[in-house]
Amino acid sequence: MTEFDAREQAQQILDYCLLSMRYGLNFNTQGNISVRLPEEDRFMITPTDMEYDRMSADDMVVVDANANVIEGRHEPSSEVTVHLAVYRRRPDVNAIVHTEPVFANVFGVIGEPIEGALVNMIIYTRGAVPIMPFAPSNNTAFGDAMCDVMGDRNAVVWANHGLLTVGPNLRDAFKASVAVESAAKVLLHARAVTDKVNVLDYESLGLRSGL
Length: 211
Ligand SMILES: [Zn+2]
Hints:
Helices cover 39% and strands 15% of the residues. The protein is an alpha+beta fold.
């Protein structure tokens, strides 16, 4: 087993940040990404208020479970306490991706969960994506309430704001974000031509054992 390389981890986070812009999931300084580090009570997260395309691996911030900065020259993302609430509540989660993509946000604005339009989405999300009602997202209370809404699923839309996805690793958490936005886009296009859309139910498909 290779020793943990913090620099490599920081670069991986940056790579997915840049990919989120290329895929149109974020603009300006929107979004944030974090991972749980191998050392207990340590998490690496993107800094606050910095464009991804101006960020370097050295700009990542390491915090403890109370959001105290352990390493780094910047303040962590303003939503760090939301990420920490997820890590506290979901031991299965090792990575979190928050983005602000247009089509997922439409469902937040109309207050309707994103149903399983695509099989790829519900495999990652473990079902329809619920909606967290709007509230300021820079505090632990929002994080706890959001965890209640998300339950054991891997995605939740924040009404009038964005999307948060989680996973056992960063690659899966990121793929969940892409999958949700794709499904939201397809669903809205389908609805533009008919009211009769076919969606998948995660529980009845027996996908829990994986494909
Ligand atoms: Zn945001």
